[in-house]
Design a protein that fits this description.
The chain is α/β, with parallel strands linked by helices. It folds into four domains: 129 residues, Response regulator (Rossmann fold, 3-Layer(aba) Sandwich), CATH 3.40.50; 174 residues, P-loop containing nucleotide triphosphate hydrolases (Rossmann fold), CATH 3.40.50.300; 78 residues, Helicase, Ruva Protein, domain 3; 49 residues, Homeodomain-like (Arc Repressor Mutant, subunit A), CATH 1.10.10. 49% of the residues lie in helices and 13% in strands. Strands 2-1-3-4-5 form a five-stranded parallel sheet, with helices on both faces. The protein has a five-stranded parallel sheet with strand order 7-10-13-6-14. A two-stranded antiparallel sheet has the order 8-9. Helix 3 links the parallel strand 3 and strand 4. The chain is extended, with a radius of gyration of 31 Å. The N terminus is likely disordered.
Protein backbone atom coordinates (compact mmCIF):
# COMPACT_ATOMS: atom_id res chain seq x y z
CA UNK A 1 0.00 0.00 0.00
CA UNK A 2 1.38 3.40 -0.94
CA UNK A 3 1.39 5.97 1.91
CA UNK A 4 -0.49 9.25 1.42
CA UNK A 5 -3.28 8.11 -0.91
CA UNK A 6 -5.61 6.29 1.46
CA UNK A 7 -9.21 6.91 0.40
CA UNK A 8 -11.73 7.94 3.08
CA UNK A 9 -14.13 5.02 3.54
CA UNK A 10 -17.14 7.05 4.66
CA UNK A 11 -18.17 7.61 1.04
CA UNK A 12 -15.62 5.79 -1.16
CA UNK A 13 -15.33 6.75 -4.81
CA UNK A 14 -16.60 4.26 -7.40
CA UNK A 15 -14.11 3.38 -10.15
CA UNK A 16 -14.65 1.35 -13.31
CA UNK A 17 -11.58 -0.45 -14.68
CA UNK A 18 -11.66 -1.38 -18.38
CA UNK A 19 -8.90 -3.58 -19.86
CA UNK A 20 -8.89 -6.66 -22.10
CA UNK A 21 -5.78 -7.82 -20.21
CA UNK A 22 -7.44 -9.56 -17.29
CA UNK A 23 -4.26 -9.78 -15.24
CA UNK A 24 -3.69 -6.02 -15.60
CA UNK A 25 -7.28 -5.15 -14.74
CA UNK A 26 -7.15 -7.43 -11.68
CA UNK A 27 -3.88 -5.84 -10.57
CA UNK A 28 -5.36 -2.34 -10.87
CA UNK A 29 -8.51 -3.39 -9.04
CA UNK A 30 -6.49 -4.85 -6.16
CA UNK A 31 -4.32 -1.73 -5.84
CA UNK A 32 -7.35 0.57 -5.83
CA UNK A 33 -9.33 -1.57 -3.38
CA UNK A 34 -6.40 -1.50 -0.97
CA UNK A 35 -6.73 2.28 -1.02
CA UNK A 36 -10.41 2.04 -0.06
CA UNK A 37 -12.02 2.61 -3.47
CA UNK A 38 -15.00 0.61 -4.71
CA UNK A 39 -13.96 -1.01 -7.99
CA UNK A 40 -15.74 -2.86 -10.79
CA UNK A 41 -14.10 -4.48 -13.82
CA UNK A 42 -15.14 -5.05 -17.43
CA UNK A 43 -12.95 -6.23 -20.27
CA UNK A 44 -14.02 -4.28 -23.37
CA UNK A 45 -15.45 -0.93 -24.43
CA UNK A 46 -19.05 -1.95 -25.25
CA UNK A 47 -19.39 -3.63 -21.84
CA UNK A 48 -18.07 -0.46 -20.17
CA UNK A 49 -20.63 1.69 -22.01
CA UNK A 50 -23.45 -0.64 -20.98
CA UNK A 51 -22.28 -0.70 -17.35
CA UNK A 52 -21.90 3.10 -17.25
CA UNK A 53 -25.39 3.60 -18.62
CA UNK A 54 -26.78 1.44 -15.83
CA UNK A 55 -24.83 3.09 -13.02
CA UNK A 56 -22.41 6.01 -13.49
CA UNK A 57 -18.97 6.03 -11.85
CA UNK A 58 -16.77 8.71 -10.32
CA UNK A 59 -13.83 7.65 -12.52
CA UNK A 60 -13.16 5.25 -15.39
CA UNK A 61 -9.67 3.86 -15.99
CA UNK A 62 -9.30 2.31 -19.45
CA UNK A 63 -6.62 0.87 -21.67
CA UNK A 64 -6.07 2.75 -24.94
CA UNK A 65 -5.68 -0.28 -27.26
CA UNK A 66 -8.51 -2.83 -26.98
CA UNK A 67 -9.89 -5.12 -29.71
CA UNK A 68 -13.60 -4.21 -29.75
CA UNK A 69 -13.32 -0.48 -29.04
CA UNK A 70 -10.35 1.83 -28.64
CA UNK A 71 -10.05 3.74 -25.41
CA UNK A 72 -10.46 7.08 -27.19
CA UNK A 73 -13.82 5.97 -28.63
CA UNK A 74 -14.88 4.80 -25.18
CA UNK A 75 -14.07 8.27 -23.83
CA UNK A 76 -16.28 9.87 -26.48
CA UNK A 77 -19.21 7.58 -25.73
CA UNK A 78 -18.94 8.04 -21.98
CA UNK A 79 -18.89 11.82 -22.51
CA UNK A 80 -22.15 11.51 -24.48
CA UNK A 81 -23.72 9.68 -21.54
CA UNK A 82 -22.28 12.04 -18.92
CA UNK A 83 -20.61 15.29 -19.93
CA UNK A 84 -18.78 15.28 -16.58
CA UNK A 85 -17.41 11.75 -17.02
CA UNK A 86 -13.78 11.51 -15.89
CA UNK A 87 -11.57 9.03 -17.77
CA UNK A 88 -7.94 8.12 -17.14
CA UNK A 89 -6.26 6.40 -20.10
CA UNK A 90 -3.47 3.81 -19.86
CA UNK A 91 -1.33 3.32 -22.93
CA UNK A 92 1.77 1.41 -23.87
CA UNK A 93 2.37 3.91 -26.64
CA UNK A 94 3.94 6.82 -24.83
CA UNK A 95 4.07 9.02 -27.91
CA UNK A 96 2.92 12.61 -28.19
CA UNK A 97 0.36 11.47 -30.78
CA UNK A 98 -1.39 9.08 -28.41
CA UNK A 99 -1.37 11.69 -25.64
CA UNK A 100 -2.91 14.32 -27.92
CA UNK A 101 -5.51 11.84 -29.14
CA UNK A 102 -6.44 10.97 -25.58
CA UNK A 103 -6.80 14.58 -24.47
CA UNK A 104 -8.77 15.54 -27.58
CA UNK A 105 -11.16 12.71 -26.84
CA UNK A 106 -11.83 14.32 -23.47
CA UNK A 107 -9.65 12.20 -21.18
CA UNK A 108 -8.61 13.73 -17.87
CA UNK A 109 -5.04 12.44 -18.28
CA UNK A 110 -3.05 9.46 -19.48
CA UNK A 111 -0.43 7.14 -17.94
CA UNK A 112 2.10 5.14 -19.96
CA UNK A 113 2.97 1.51 -19.37
CA UNK A 114 4.89 0.40 -17.47
CA UNK A 115 3.75 2.65 -14.64
CA UNK A 116 4.55 2.82 -10.93
CA UNK A 117 1.78 2.21 -8.43
CA UNK A 118 2.23 5.61 -6.78
CA UNK A 119 2.08 7.28 -10.22
CA UNK A 120 -1.36 5.95 -11.11
CA UNK A 121 -2.68 6.51 -7.56
CA UNK A 122 -1.58 10.13 -7.80
CA UNK A 123 -3.48 10.58 -11.09
CA UNK A 124 -6.55 8.87 -9.58
CA UNK A 125 -6.40 11.24 -6.60
CA UNK A 126 -6.13 14.29 -8.88
CA UNK A 127 -8.99 13.12 -11.08
CA UNK A 128 -11.28 12.59 -8.09
CA UNK A 129 -10.35 15.98 -6.69
CA UNK A 130 -11.47 17.50 -9.99
CA UNK A 131 -14.70 15.50 -9.78
CA UNK A 132 -15.29 16.89 -6.30
CA UNK A 133 -14.60 20.42 -7.54
CA UNK A 134 -17.06 19.98 -10.42
CA UNK A 135 -19.72 18.81 -7.98
CA UNK A 136 -19.11 21.82 -5.71
CA UNK A 137 -19.31 24.24 -8.64
CA UNK A 138 -22.58 22.66 -9.76
CA UNK A 139 -23.94 22.82 -6.21
CA UNK A 140 -23.08 26.51 -5.95
CA UNK A 141 -24.60 27.16 -9.37
CA UNK A 142 -27.84 25.49 -8.28
CA UNK A 143 -27.72 27.41 -5.00
CA UNK A 144 -27.37 30.70 -6.84
CA UNK A 145 -30.23 29.84 -9.16
CA UNK A 146 -32.36 28.72 -6.23
CA UNK A 147 -31.68 31.97 -4.42
CA UNK A 148 -32.05 34.35 -7.32
CA UNK A 149 -34.41 32.59 -9.73
CA UNK A 150 -37.47 34.83 -10.00
CA UNK A 151 -39.81 31.92 -9.37
CA UNK A 152 -38.45 31.84 -5.80
CA UNK A 153 -39.13 35.49 -5.00
CA UNK A 154 -41.86 35.20 -2.40
CA UNK A 155 -45.26 36.60 -3.32
CA UNK A 156 -48.69 35.59 -4.56
CA UNK A 157 -50.54 38.90 -4.62
CA UNK A 158 -51.76 40.33 -7.91
CA UNK A 159 -49.09 43.04 -7.83
CA UNK A 160 -46.30 40.49 -7.43
CA UNK A 161 -47.67 38.26 -10.17
CA UNK A 162 -47.39 41.26 -12.48
CA UNK A 163 -43.77 41.70 -11.39
CA UNK A 164 -43.02 38.02 -12.09
CA UNK A 165 -44.45 38.32 -15.59
CA UNK A 166 -42.42 41.46 -16.26
CA UNK A 167 -39.19 39.80 -15.06
CA UNK A 168 -39.82 36.86 -17.36
CA UNK A 169 -40.46 39.23 -20.26
CA UNK A 170 -37.45 41.52 -19.83
CA UNK A 171 -34.78 39.02 -18.74
CA UNK A 172 -33.63 38.09 -22.24
CA UNK A 173 -33.95 41.61 -23.62
CA UNK A 174 -30.86 43.83 -23.68
CA UNK A 175 -32.68 47.04 -22.78
CA UNK A 176 -31.99 49.04 -19.62
CA UNK A 177 -34.38 48.55 -16.70
CA UNK A 178 -35.22 51.02 -13.93
CA UNK A 179 -36.59 49.56 -10.68
CA UNK A 180 -38.44 52.02 -8.44
CA UNK A 181 -39.45 51.15 -4.91
CA UNK A 182 -39.07 52.07 -1.26
CA UNK A 183 -36.07 50.87 0.72
CA UNK A 184 -36.42 47.23 1.70
CA UNK A 185 -38.76 46.18 -1.11
CA UNK A 186 -36.18 43.88 -2.74
CA UNK A 187 -34.86 45.90 -5.68
CA UNK A 188 -31.49 44.14 -5.79
CA UNK A 189 -33.19 40.73 -5.57
CA UNK A 190 -35.28 41.65 -8.62
CA UNK A 191 -32.17 42.80 -10.48
CA UNK A 192 -30.41 39.53 -9.67
CA UNK A 193 -33.46 37.59 -10.86
CA UNK A 194 -33.40 39.44 -14.18
CA UNK A 195 -29.72 38.58 -14.58
CA UNK A 196 -30.04 34.96 -13.44
CA UNK A 197 -32.83 34.28 -15.94
CA UNK A 198 -31.06 35.95 -18.87
CA UNK A 199 -28.58 34.73 -21.46
CA UNK A 200 -25.90 36.63 -19.49
CA UNK A 201 -26.36 34.53 -16.34
CA UNK A 202 -22.92 32.91 -16.66
CA UNK A 203 -21.25 36.33 -16.63
CA UNK A 204 -20.74 38.72 -13.72
CA UNK A 205 -23.46 40.49 -11.76
CA UNK A 206 -21.81 43.62 -10.34
CA UNK A 207 -23.81 45.70 -7.82
CA UNK A 208 -22.83 49.14 -6.57
CA UNK A 209 -24.64 51.39 -4.12
CA UNK A 210 -24.10 54.87 -5.55
CA UNK A 211 -25.14 56.51 -2.27
CA UNK A 212 -22.50 54.63 -0.26
CA UNK A 213 -19.46 55.89 -2.21
CA UNK A 214 -18.12 59.46 -1.88
CA UNK A 215 -18.48 61.60 -4.99
CA UNK A 216 -14.69 61.87 -5.33
CA UNK A 217 -14.35 58.08 -5.60
CA UNK A 218 -17.49 57.18 -7.52
CA UNK A 219 -16.14 58.15 -10.94
CA UNK A 220 -13.01 56.02 -10.56
CA UNK A 221 -15.09 53.12 -9.24
CA UNK A 222 -17.37 53.21 -12.28
CA UNK A 223 -14.89 53.97 -15.04
CA UNK A 224 -11.51 52.91 -13.64
CA UNK A 225 -8.19 54.75 -13.88
CA UNK A 226 -4.64 54.38 -15.11
CA UNK A 227 -1.44 54.62 -13.16
CA UNK A 228 -0.59 58.23 -12.29
CA UNK A 229 -4.14 59.54 -12.82
CA UNK A 230 -3.99 60.93 -9.27
CA UNK A 231 -1.70 60.77 -6.26
CA UNK A 232 -2.60 57.28 -5.01
CA UNK A 233 -3.03 55.71 -8.46
CA UNK A 234 0.01 53.44 -8.35
CA UNK A 235 -1.29 50.97 -10.93
CA UNK A 236 -4.06 50.65 -13.51
CA UNK A 237 -7.47 49.65 -12.19
CA UNK A 238 -10.49 48.46 -14.16
CA UNK A 239 -13.80 50.14 -13.43
CA UNK A 240 -17.07 48.38 -12.72
CA UNK A 241 -18.28 48.92 -16.29
CA UNK A 242 -15.31 46.90 -17.54
CA UNK A 243 -15.75 44.27 -14.81
CA UNK A 244 -19.41 43.83 -15.74
CA UNK A 245 -18.80 43.66 -19.49
CA UNK A 246 -20.77 40.73 -20.87
CA UNK A 247 -22.83 40.66 -17.66
CA UNK A 248 -25.00 43.09 -15.71
CA UNK A 249 -24.13 46.25 -13.76
CA UNK A 250 -26.66 47.12 -11.04
CA UNK A 251 -26.62 50.80 -10.09
CA UNK A 252 -28.51 51.04 -6.80
CA UNK A 253 -29.65 54.46 -5.55
CA UNK A 254 -28.95 55.90 -9.00
CA UNK A 255 -30.56 59.20 -7.97
CA UNK A 256 -27.62 59.88 -5.63
CA UNK A 257 -25.13 60.27 -8.49
CA UNK A 258 -24.10 63.96 -8.66
CA UNK A 259 -25.16 65.94 -11.72
CA UNK A 260 -21.56 66.38 -12.89
CA UNK A 261 -21.12 62.60 -13.04
CA UNK A 262 -24.54 62.01 -14.59
CA UNK A 263 -23.32 63.60 -17.82
CA UNK A 264 -20.35 61.21 -18.01
CA UNK A 265 -22.59 58.24 -17.24
CA UNK A 266 -24.91 59.30 -20.06
CA UNK A 267 -21.95 59.38 -22.46
CA UNK A 268 -20.94 55.84 -21.49
CA UNK A 269 -24.47 54.56 -22.01
CA UNK A 270 -24.78 56.23 -25.41
CA UNK A 271 -21.31 55.34 -26.73
CA UNK A 272 -20.98 51.95 -24.98
CA UNK A 273 -17.38 52.75 -24.11
CA UNK A 274 -15.57 54.09 -21.07
CA UNK A 275 -12.56 56.34 -20.72
CA UNK A 276 -10.65 55.58 -17.51
CA UNK A 277 -9.36 58.54 -15.50
CA UNK A 278 -5.94 59.72 -16.66
CA UNK A 279 -6.17 58.60 -20.29
CA UNK A 280 -7.70 59.68 -23.59
CA UNK A 281 -8.06 56.08 -24.74
CA UNK A 282 -11.60 54.66 -24.69
CA UNK A 283 -12.52 51.02 -24.19
CA UNK A 284 -15.64 49.30 -25.53
CA UNK A 285 -17.89 47.75 -22.87
CA UNK A 286 -20.96 45.54 -23.09
CA UNK A 287 -22.58 45.78 -19.67
CA UNK A 288 -26.34 45.62 -19.36
CA UNK A 289 -27.65 48.26 -16.97
CA UNK A 290 -30.30 47.81 -14.32
CA UNK A 291 -30.77 50.83 -12.04
CA UNK A 292 -32.79 51.35 -8.89
CA UNK A 293 -34.23 54.36 -7.11
CA UNK A 294 -36.19 54.65 -3.86
CA UNK A 295 -37.76 57.98 -4.82
CA UNK A 296 -39.92 59.06 -7.74
CA UNK A 297 -37.37 59.76 -10.49
CA UNK A 298 -39.82 61.91 -12.47
CA UNK A 299 -40.15 64.22 -9.48
CA UNK A 300 -36.36 64.40 -9.21
CA UNK A 301 -36.21 65.39 -12.89
CA UNK A 302 -38.77 68.14 -12.30
CA UNK A 303 -36.74 69.41 -9.34
CA UNK A 304 -33.61 69.56 -11.51
CA UNK A 305 -31.79 66.95 -9.43
CA UNK A 306 -31.65 64.33 -12.17
CA UNK A 307 -30.92 64.75 -15.86
CA UNK A 308 -33.96 64.15 -18.00
CA UNK A 309 -31.93 62.64 -20.88
CA UNK A 310 -30.22 60.20 -18.50
CA UNK A 311 -33.60 59.26 -17.01
CA UNK A 312 -34.95 58.41 -20.46
CA UNK A 313 -31.87 56.28 -21.19
CA UNK A 314 -32.23 54.32 -17.95
CA UNK A 315 -36.01 54.11 -18.02
CA UNK A 316 -36.52 52.00 -21.14
CA UNK A 317 -38.52 49.58 -19.01
CA UNK A 318 -39.69 50.64 -15.56
CA UNK A 319 -40.65 48.28 -12.74
CA UNK A 320 -42.48 49.72 -9.73
CA UNK A 321 -42.16 47.49 -6.66
CA UNK A 322 -45.08 47.80 -4.25
CA UNK A 323 -44.33 48.44 -0.56
CA UNK A 324 -45.24 45.61 1.79
CA UNK A 325 -48.25 47.50 3.15
CA UNK A 326 -49.78 47.28 -0.35
CA UNK A 327 -49.31 43.50 -0.59
CA UNK A 328 -50.89 42.38 2.67
CA UNK A 329 -51.81 39.01 1.11
CA UNK A 330 -48.10 38.20 0.88
CA UNK A 331 -47.28 38.86 4.54
CA UNK A 332 -48.35 35.41 5.89
CA UNK A 333 -46.33 33.48 3.29
CA UNK A 334 -43.33 35.78 3.82
CA UNK A 335 -43.57 35.11 7.56
CA UNK A 336 -43.68 31.36 6.92
CA UNK A 337 -40.67 31.61 4.58
CA UNK A 338 -38.55 33.58 7.06
CA UNK A 339 -39.57 31.35 9.98
CA UNK A 340 -38.43 28.29 8.06
CA UNK A 341 -35.21 29.99 6.95
CA UNK A 342 -34.11 31.14 10.40
CA UNK A 343 -35.30 28.05 12.26
CA UNK A 344 -33.14 25.92 9.93
CA UNK A 345 -30.16 28.21 10.44
CA UNK A 346 -30.51 28.25 14.22
CA UNK A 347 -31.68 24.61 14.43
CA UNK A 348 -34.63 25.71 16.54
CA UNK A 349 -37.84 23.72 16.14
CA UNK A 350 -40.99 25.81 15.78
CA UNK A 351 -44.62 24.73 15.79
CA UNK A 352 -45.86 27.90 14.11
CA UNK A 353 -47.06 31.35 15.11
CA UNK A 354 -49.85 32.41 17.47
CA UNK A 355 -52.94 33.94 15.79
CA UNK A 356 -52.62 37.25 17.65
CA UNK A 357 -48.95 37.48 16.64
CA UNK A 358 -49.84 36.85 13.00
CA UNK A 359 -52.58 39.50 13.22
CA UNK A 360 -50.12 42.02 14.66
CA UNK A 361 -47.65 41.41 11.84
CA UNK A 362 -50.37 41.56 9.20
CA UNK A 363 -51.78 44.84 10.50
CA UNK A 364 -48.42 46.57 10.98
CA UNK A 365 -47.53 49.34 8.51
CA UNK A 366 -43.97 48.03 7.78
CA UNK A 367 -42.12 51.26 6.93
CA UNK A 368 -38.97 49.16 6.41
CA UNK A 369 -40.85 46.76 4.11
CA UNK A 370 -39.62 43.18 3.57
CA UNK A 371 -36.23 43.88 5.14
CA UNK A 372 -37.90 44.99 8.38
CA UNK A 373 -40.20 41.95 8.38
CA UNK A 374 -37.23 39.63 7.83
CA UNK A 375 -35.30 41.17 10.73
CA UNK A 376 -38.39 40.98 12.94
CA UNK A 377 -38.83 37.25 12.29
CA UNK A 378 -35.10 36.61 12.69
CA UNK A 379 -35.17 38.29 16.10
CA UNK A 380 -38.27 36.32 17.15
CA UNK A 381 -36.73 33.00 16.10
CA UNK A 382 -33.35 33.64 17.72
CA UNK A 383 -34.59 35.14 20.99
CA UNK A 384 -37.91 33.34 21.47
CA UNK A 385 -38.23 30.59 24.08
CA UNK A 386 -41.66 29.12 23.33
CA UNK A 387 -42.49 26.53 20.67
CA UNK A 388 -44.65 29.06 18.84
CA UNK A 389 -43.84 32.67 18.01
CA UNK A 390 -45.99 35.05 20.04
CA UNK A 391 -46.42 38.75 20.74
CA UNK A 392 -43.77 38.50 23.46
CA UNK A 393 -41.15 37.85 20.75
CA UNK A 394 -41.71 41.18 18.98
CA UNK A 395 -40.25 44.65 19.71
CA UNK A 396 -42.50 46.72 22.03
CA UNK A 397 -42.99 49.38 19.36
CA UNK A 398 -44.54 46.85 16.98
CA UNK A 399 -46.85 45.35 19.60
CA UNK A 400 -47.89 48.75 21.02
CA UNK A 401 -49.01 49.94 17.61
CA UNK A 402 -51.26 46.94 17.13
CA UNK A 403 -52.51 46.29 20.65
CA UNK A 404 -55.14 49.03 20.97
CA UNK A 405 -58.47 47.53 22.02
CA UNK A 406 -60.15 50.84 21.23
CA UNK A 407 -58.72 52.46 18.07
CA UNK A 408 -60.57 55.68 18.91
CA UNK A 409 -58.35 56.13 21.98
CA UNK A 410 -55.36 56.50 19.68
CA UNK A 411 -57.22 59.02 17.53
CA UNK A 412 -58.19 61.07 20.60
CA UNK A 413 -54.63 61.04 21.87
CA UNK A 414 -53.48 62.45 18.54
CA UNK A 415 -56.31 65.05 18.48
CA UNK A 416 -57.62 63.73 15.17
CA UNK A 417 -60.36 65.71 13.44
CA UNK A 418 -63.29 63.81 11.92
CA UNK A 419 -61.67 64.37 8.52
CA UNK A 420 -58.36 62.90 9.77
CA UNK A 421 -60.14 59.87 11.19
CA UNK A 422 -62.05 59.24 7.96
CA UNK A 423 -58.88 59.52 5.87
CA UNK A 424 -56.97 57.15 8.20
CA UNK A 425 -59.78 54.60 8.08
CA UNK A 426 -60.04 54.70 4.29
CA UNK A 427 -56.28 54.27 3.97
CA UNK A 428 -56.33 51.32 6.36
CA UNK A 429 -59.17 49.60 4.51
CA UNK A 430 -57.41 50.12 1.17
CA UNK A 431 -54.28 48.51 2.61
CA UNK A 432 -56.17 45.52 3.99
CA UNK A 433 -57.94 44.78 0.67
CA UNK A 434 -54.75 45.28 -1.33
CA UNK A 435 -56.06 48.29 -3.25
CA UNK A 436 -59.20 46.52 -4.49
CA UNK A 437 -61.68 49.40 -4.75
CA UNK A 438 -64.75 47.15 -5.07
CA UNK A 439 -63.87 45.35 -1.82
CA UNK A 440 -62.95 48.64 -0.14
CA UNK A 441 -66.28 50.24 -1.06
CA UNK A 442 -68.12 47.18 0.24
CA UNK A 443 -66.21 47.27 3.55
CA UNK A 444 -66.78 51.03 3.95
CA UNK A 445 -70.46 50.73 3.07
CA UNK A 446 -70.33 53.28 0.24
CA UNK A 447 -70.64 53.08 -3.53
CA UNK A 448 -67.56 53.17 -5.78
CA UNK A 449 -68.26 56.73 -6.92
CA UNK A 450 -68.15 57.97 -3.33
CA UNK A 451 -64.96 56.02 -2.70
CA UNK A 452 -63.26 57.50 -5.80
CA UNK A 453 -64.24 61.00 -4.66
CA UNK A 454 -62.88 60.39 -1.15
CA UNK A 455 -59.61 58.95 -2.51
CA UNK A 456 -59.14 62.02 -4.69
CA UNK A 457 -60.12 64.37 -1.89
CA UNK A 458 -57.65 62.87 0.58
CA UNK A 459 -55.02 62.19 -2.09
CA UNK A 460 -54.87 58.53 -1.08
CA UNK A 461 -52.75 56.47 -3.46
CA UNK A 462 -54.78 53.66 -4.97
Amino acid sequence: MTPGFKQETTNPARILVVDDDREMSQFLADVLREEGYRVEMVHDGPSAVERYRADSFDLTITDLMMPRMRGTELVRQLKEIDTHALVLLITAFGSIESAVEAMHAGAFHYVTKPFRTDEILLQVKRALEQRSLQSEVERLRQQVHSRFGFENIIGQSARMREIFELIAHVSDLTVNVLIVGESGTGKEMIARAIHQNSARAAKSFIPINCAAIPETLLESELFGYVRGAFTDARKDRRGLFQAASGGLLFLDEISEIPLSLQAKLLRVIEDKEVRPLGTNQSEKVDARLVSACNRDPELLVQEGRFRQDLYYRLNVIRMDLPPLRERVDDIPILIEHFMRKFSEQSQRKLDGIEPEALAALTNYHWPGNIRELEHTIERAVLLGKESRIGLQDFPPSLVARNDNVLPLADALAKSYTLRDLEKEYIMRVMEIVGGNKTEAAKTLGVDRTTLYRKLEEYKVKS
